Amino acid sequence: MKHPDDDNELFNRLEAEMTADSGGEVVDLDKARSAREQSADPTARPDANPSADSAPDRSGTESGDPTARVLVDQPTAKAAGPGYLGRLLAAKRRPVVPVWLKSLAELRTASAWVARHYAHSVGYHALRSPVYAARLTFQAPSGAAKFVGATMRWVADREGEPVRLAAVRREDAAEYLKLSRQRDGRVRLRTLVAVLAMFIGLGSALAIYVLAPDWLQAVSVGAVTMALGYAGRKADDPVIHKAVELPKAVKLTSDIVLRALGSLGIPAINQAQGKGRDGFEFTAPITRDGPGWRAEGNLPYGVTVTDVIERRDRLASGLRRPLGCVWPEAVPNEHTGHLVLWVGDQDMSTAKKPKWPLLTSGIVNLFKPVAYGTDQRGRWVEVTLMYIAGIIGAIPRMGKTFLLRLLLLIAALDPRAELHTYDMKGTGDLDPVGNAVSHRHAAGDDDDAIEYALNDFRALREELRRRTKVIRSLPRDICPESKVTSELADKRSLGLHPIVIGVDECQVLFEHPKHKDEFEEIATDLVKRGPATGIVLLLATQRPDAKALPTGISANASARWCLKVMGQLENDMVLGTSAYKRGVRATMFAWGDKGIHYFVGEGSDARIVGSAYVDGPAADSVAARARKVRETAGTLSGYALGEEPETVASAYDLLADILAVVPAAEPKVWSETIVSRLAELRPEVYDGWDPDALNAALKPHGIATIQVGRRVDGKVVNRRGIERAHITAAISERNGKRDAG
Ligand SMILES: Nc1ncnc2c1ncn2[C@@H]1O[C@H](COP(=O)(O)OP(=O)(O)OP(=O)(O)O)[C@@H](O)[C@H]1O
């Protein structure tokens, strides 16, 4: 038996669901009521919503009553989504002024290109003008003959001759008479005009010959000769050739886009097109966007932009364009089937790029964005090197080192920045920067270079700690955000100038058999705490996996540059978890796409950027300029001045210091006791160390902490500590090795 309350419950639920679905929209209560009535009538059809007919199982039976049905589809079109106001709120307005018109840089670039185009044309023709003049003069007699002939034909009304002859052939005397009379009148008039023109022409020529100065005579004769020469030109041999052959970029039309999408082999698109539909719903007209075309629209249900990106090569084939011209993209915050297809006029890898603005002049403020590459549309893309930690990943030979060097050159052009450059590949790619301006620099993966880098990393850790203390001690009004600012970096007494560390092939450090843990620990600290203290770590690797790029580092990097990689794993290691799934796939880059990469940073989603190409000699000249600026500012230091670094290890010897503060009478001591004694012994080094820091610093020596029990107030308290014998053993092992060495 059905309880009357069941009806009310159903009605309430209907109301609740409809209100929830429509986001507080008006619900058609009549329909809802009729649904209630129908479900109350056991003979009535249990489905109140005709639109649910086709749905196999859209009913709910949660109430336990199998006849009770829940409306899933909205009963009226009116309640089918947000209202007019809601839609307006979510509406995306297209910019009134196109972006390219608002961008001063783009306008400047475009104007420069147009100016260069015309300057080239003028130069081209100016150089050839004597040849043009000679050829025209040579053609002038034939032009004169053509002119005289054409004039005589005109005077004699030759154009009417075929009609007159036709009248003769037809033997139409009346028609012929009419035409002859018309011709006689015309010939008389034209003869008069010709004689008049001849007199005026000859009179003018005579006047010029008698009265005009020489230059006017020369100009007049020249002009007449050139004009006659032009009249004497041959159709198949023009005197003036085109200075510039403009490439003919095929206009992108909806038919071409649909043809290309149909060639991808995506079943949903093919099925739709097979049934005569488009298989793609354009949401905006195809427009010019920079030096290319932009098409935008929705793919069929279930097809995602990543499905298209995966088949970029087939798309390029379908569009009949080079691969480097075809750039399908997902739109952030849109549904995953919303495709933006940008088709460039020229291949991005071969298109002529504008000159990098810093190549020949200018310095940099690292706290401000600096242009380092161009996007597909040729617009400059900027990067702010402060407050970031960055990773660069790619398979070999795609331009990773060039990109790292470019970023380091940018850093070099801020005279305040202290550079630490490590080229672990050892081919000298970073030498232009290193030799000219670096405070610390090493190349190669031999023991000396590793020791040098380790020593520097240790010093950087100390510097990081010092900086955190300085920042903490600064008054709020000077350092409101507890981070280094450009103004703070200017105050030399604080020592908060930017420090930029660049490591190429960083896997050499993080996979080093002996020091990998220490490198990893320091680098993780620099990635996490460095950005706020003005320390920037840039790591490049050709093998972005968890070993080469420990996850503590890759997860915390805030800037990412990913050139071509081979698989999802590497892609996501560099660009961040699930980047591949979101369609940000550096796997789609072609082998020829050197320097082209996805850039994630500057607070925006992944962008495709082609980095500015600065080769070795150009890098040398930029670095030489940076050195000069530093010499003037008095900020050149360290390696660039030929100074050897003080080895941190020799400045303090942790093991010896521990022995100094732990007498032989204490075989086992708590870590906290040791760090407080060390801080007393050498406050400039150990101040601020905690047991964890001590533990981390001892790890590379192969010393682990142990449980140490001590009696406090009659009770045994266990804490982490160190056994003195381990320290002495480590020292004798070290000394033994050194002696052997
Ligand atoms: N922005 C660029 N534009 C055009 N070509 C570039 C660009 N950057 C690099 N290249 C070309 O790519 C080649 C390889 O660059 P690079 O040495 O930086 O590669 P890599 O990824 O560091 O290689 P490896 O892994 O062997 O060190 C260079 O010789 C250069 O000619």
Automatic annotation (TrEMBL):
Residues 28-39 have a biased composition (Basic and acidic residues). SUPFAM superfamilies: P-loop containing nucleoside triphosphate hydrolases. PROSITE patterns: FTSK (PS50901). InterPro entries: FtsK/SpoIIIE/SftA (IPR050206), FtsK_dom (IPR002543), P-loop_NTPase (IPR027417). GO terms for biological process: cell division. Residues 1-75 are annotated as: Disordered. ATP binds at A394, I395, P396, R397, M398, G399, K400, T401. GO terms for molecular function: ATP binding; DNA binding. The chain crosses the membrane at residues 187-209, 215-232. Gene3D superfamilies: P-loop containing nucleotide triphosphate hydrolases. This is Cell division protein FtsK.
